[in-house]
Amino acid sequence: MRPFRISKAQARRVPALGAAFFVALGLFAPQSFAAPAGQASAATPPATKAAAPRAIPVPKSPEATTGGRPLAAEDDAKAATPKAAATTTPTRAAKQFSAAAAGSTCDLSAFTNASGSALVANVKAASLDCLNTLYPLTGTDAGKVFGEAKMVAVADALRTNAAAYPGDNSASTGQLVQFLRAGYYVQWYHSDVVGQYGPTLQTSIRGALDAFFAAPHSTDVTQANGETLSEAVTLIDSAQENARYTAPVKRLLGDYTTSWPKSMTDAVANTKTVIEDGFDQPAYIAALQADPGFATTMSSFVTRNASLINGGDMVTSIGILIGNLVAHDELKAQGRPIIKDLVTRFPLVGATAPLTMNLVWFTENKDKGNCSVYGLCDLPTRLPPLVLTNERTCNANLRVRAQEMTAQQLADTCTSLINEDALFHKVIQDNGAIPGDVNTNLEVVVFDDYYEYSLYAGAMYGIAVDNGGMYEEGNPTKAGNQARFIAHEASWLRPDFQIWNLNHEYTHYLDGRYNMYGDFDAGMVTPTIWWVEGIAEYISYSYRNVRNADAITEAGKKTYKLSELFDTVYDQTPDANVNSNRVYRWGYLAVRYMLQSHPDDVKAVLAKYRTGDWNGARTLLKSTIGTSYDADFASWLTACAADNCGTLPPVQTAPLCTLPDTRQFDKNCRRDNAAATTGNYSYSFLYLPAGVKSLTITSAGGAGNADLYYNGGSWATNSSYLAKSANQGNGESLTITNPPAGWVYFSLYAQQGFSGATVTTTYTTS
Fold it and tell me: What does the pLDDT read at residue 38?
């Protein structure tokens, strides 16, 4: 993902790679990534909440919302455009009206060739089914049907018609409304052919809507009236007259009860668009400022109808919009007490969570620094135990906290990470953690799906959520620092269970601990992204034994030279699709090629990275290597595109020890999966013949922090030893010259509980 290693103190976090581009690029291998937007705030900000992270336009989770604000469940992102007629059920509007002109045909020429009263007659005679087919019009036909003069004629006809509106569609009022809605919709998208709508139409549409909402029968609580009323409410927004008609909207919200017929309920639901889009209009803000009763009516609508709240209902959708009050200075005084009441009244979890947590989002992002006003300053500590109700400690260094995971899923996740750890060390062949790096403990937080992640992760951890997850490294040199990967289940892959980006992100944790000196900022002094993202992709795909089809496809294109990939940075191009390809797919290819073809060069570069010698590493890549591998890389790409990408050179490891006592070693052998809990030992011994000149004992891999002790002829402990190696992590090595013949003893002491370590012994004789 991107900035994967970030200083928590400086509030830089790594948004995990998502899959916003899986449609455009065919990406659906579950290791892709994304970016920020929003932060929590407080009158006295809690220590766990920091300034907003850097926003980077990289790929997102398939379900990520634009802007990162969680919406009502089942809701879509805010639509600032006129709303089209239903497209999933084209005949919906026709079926709504009991008096529609059933059976009439739809002749486009009736609208393109007619004007004035003739056009009005044709519109009134058409079925609503027919009128719904006008929304997709483009080109010449769009201009001929919806020019301003024709819209004025129909709007004037609606004004006359509405004056005697009977409360049903017997006078074809619905057809006039539907034509006008279609016209505004088409003109919004195709003003180049329809032309601009000006003051003349505005005067006419206001006259039409004034007349309709003034008609006594427009307030009838009947199914017949609701069928027309619901479309007229939407027409308010289509015509962008939201500010002028706050009174009818307020009336609907104030009068609504759960006994209303469906069509009247639809009319209330349609006020959502009018209210939501209205907040973008200065005149609307002025109207609400002049009438504080509108805000209290919205609040009362929510509290009176709380029994309807299930997360995806109209009460939730409309209630969320109350948050917009604090987004405008003129309305903050109205909004603050209302929002405080709602977030106090309704639970933060369960069916009311979409309502309360969206309102929390508004307080954090639109009224920053005032969490005490709402009683929300303690959310970072209050929410986790309410939301993350499942937990498993994998080992002393790894814990998973989850919203909804079974015991088996938790166990499998632990196994996946622990085994990946072993592969990482086998590939990298490191000698332990970077000196001074104390990020020995990782917490993996898993929300049930992207929506739940979007609801809670921002308030809990102060991160942006318009992405696929976030890895927070924090300060790797600070004792007690908590590294954390905040993730969500890839719900779109169900019934298969998968945590989005899990293995890729875990590689970032390991890479930051064992390869990259310091924090994120330190590693970004020179371009290191080819390695940072490339190794994460390589380990993830290799561990999961998944063919990286997208990278192999890219190989055939030969878009980049290897020397160019050493220059890769985030935001390399303004095109996020192109940059995502270069960072992840081409990063994978560059790292795979270098590991397979030039492992010694990789070791040399990593030796520089591990000490923070970024300029030295840059010199190796750009001067020592330079363009010398470009031709070979191009040949390798050709082979890789044909599915012959090669394999890593074999890692030279000692064979497994075969002696029956699992504590006993021999001349040149290893034992895997050594482990001990904090404060305890993994004891070992071996028999040395006379004449041994040099004995080497090493430990590597796994998780935790084991120190190696050697004590000659008696058991080795941290208080009784002849030699020791006490690096951070499990990478330890001792070489004993001229050891005595006979039994010798050594042990791994768990400075912090460890597991998965490999211990190897070798010796030479004269």
Answer: 27
